[in-house]
Amino acid sequence: MFAVKRAAWHFDRVAAEAFAEDGLGIMEGLVLAAVFFEAPRAIKPSHLAETFSTTRGNVSHVISSLEAKGFVQRKIDPSDARAYLLTLNPPGKRCALRVIAAFDKMQQGFEQSVGRSALKNALDVIRTLESLGRI
């Protein structure tokens, strides 16, 4: 299990370097990319929390940070005044494109280092381990 944790730390460092120009963390990058790919539809923060298997509080913190940087905008959901929807501002769209390119470059680097098949097998093992944690 420690090896999995060390690999996660390594990935966090790689991502931090990739997103340093924009001052983003890994979750901020993931949220920007997700909102970008949902466009032109707006996305609910609760959907992001479910997608990334994290808490709504964590997503709220990330959204507040992205909003402070001028990358996202919250709008009241017209079908549910208790909820809000996220969209990207123009600087957020530009940043999301850089983030997506960085994710793609990381993925290609991982595939070149260990091979696509080995990565797929590793992901299968990680998903199995993750499901064991829910028992």
List its salient traits.
two-stranded antiparallel ribbon; mainly alpha; 135 residues
Description:
The protein has 135 residues and is mostly helical. The protein has a single domain, classed as Arc Repressor Mutant, subunit A (Orthogonal Bundle). It is 69% helix and 11% strand. It contains six helices and two strands, in the order ααααββαα. The protein has helices at 2-19, 26-38, 45-51, 56-68, 90-114, 116-132, and strands at 72-77, 80-88. A two-stranded antiparallel sheet has the order 1-2. Helix 1 (2-19) packs across helix 5 and helix 2 packs across helix 4 (56-68). The longest helix is centred in the last third of the chain and has 25 residues, at 90-114. It is globular. The mean pLDDT is 91.
